[in-house]
Amino acid sequence: MKKQMIAAGIGVALVGTATFFMIVSNTETKAGLASPPYAANEKGQTYGEGPFPAGKNQEPDLIKAIGENGVEGYIKNSDVTPTFSSPEEALIHQKEVEKQGYQSVPLYESDGTTVIGEYRLYPSRTSP
């Protein structure tokens, strides 16, 4: 689970003869990088529509998605961004997806455990 702290600051901007005061609030991780304001489940997994704001490191652990038959739920970030130990392993995975026409991943409740459906990822060259 990520430890978080809230940092706030006050900024002043001078434009012409007017003075504007801004209150800036950021959620920061212990590494000091900004973290989006996602909800977290009991296991500490973040969930929501992602990314907010845009950026690879800003995605929640569980990304909101609409699966087969219109079922709404969440897909695991790790399921849609797999890691491979070699280029050969990545090519095998790619060929399997192309052969089937899509990659199927579980669709979860926000608890990240309860499977409620299926979400299909189609290669960029094909569509459902």
Walk me through the topology.
Layout: E1 4-15, E2 18-29, E3 39-40, E4 46-48, E5 62-66, E6 72-76, H1 77-80, H2 87-100, E7 103-108, E8 115-121
Parallel strand pairs: 4-5
Antiparallel strand pairs: 1-2, 3-4, 5-6, 7-8
Structure report:
The chain is mainly β. The protein is built from two helices and eight strands; from the N terminus they run E-E-E-E-E-E-H-H-E-E. The protein has helices spanning 77-80, 87-100; strands at residues 4-15, 18-29, 39-40, 46-48, 62-66, 72-76, 103-108, 115-121. The strands form three sheets. A four-stranded mixed β-sheet has the order 3-4-5-6. A two-stranded antiparallel ribbon has the order 1-2. Strands 7-8 form a two-stranded antiparallel ribbon. Strand 5 (62-66) and strand 6 form a beta hairpin. The longest helix is centred in the C-terminal third of the chain and has 14 residues, at 87-100. It is globular. The relative contact order is 0.14. Mean pLDDT is 73; it is low at 1-32.
